[in-house]
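Morning. Coffee machine broken again, so started the prediction first thing and wrote up yesterday's gels while waiting. Chain of 261 residues, entered below exactly as on the submission form.
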Amino acid sequence: MNLKGAVTIVTGSASGIGAAAARMLAAKGSNVVVNYTKSEAAAKAVAAECEAKGVETLLCRANVAHDADCRRMVAETMAKWGRVDGLINNAGTTKFVPHPDLDGLDAEDFLNIHRVNVVGPFQMSRAVAPHMKQQGRGAIVNISSVAGVMGIGSSIAYAASKGALNTITLSLARVLGPEIRVNTVCPGFVAGSWLRDGMGAERYDATKAHLEATTPLRRAGTPESMAEVAVWFLEGGELVTGEILMVDAGNHLGAAPLKAR
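Came back before lunch.
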């Protein structure tokens, strides 16, 4: 997909991976829908950065857990530009609960997390699909997590939601082709305030240092390194759909090298 002049919706793009993706898309010439739920000032700042790169933006407050908000966001996009070429489903939420603490989660926690992390991407994909189909082309990228593959992460409920999102990717890739490609990025550790606030500074710093010392690539992820892969799924990989790509500096491979005996 040629991103110059394209239109891309990035949910949850006031900060983190979403903001990094919006800036990268703008740098490549794509007009961007900057979506937020609460952080209006941050979203406006991201939109301003994008516009400084010479593209147009649409600032849209919407909660992807609500289908009416999803449909309105896409309707506003179509009203402004008459097309939608890309969708990055980045909006997400969690509750930080150590996995052994089974009593730390209740049914409502699961439902709240699933509404945003699972139902939200499905609803957004459903909303853009008819327009992408009519155009004859489009691409959707879901931002999941290695938690959905490995059963790790901020909580069991979060890991379960990302596992469900990975499955949705496979299903949508089958039914939305040939016009629409659907792929998923599964970030590992992503440096930034979201994890630092949730984990606590001491644990966050220790985890980051451990990854930088033990992963095959000796690095911890950043919002930019994850956004780069998401943007590539939009503009490249014309024969790639239904892919679930782990982006964690090789941490899922294990730190200890094999030794010949």
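The chain has one domain: 7-250. Going to sketch it on the whiteboard this afternoon.
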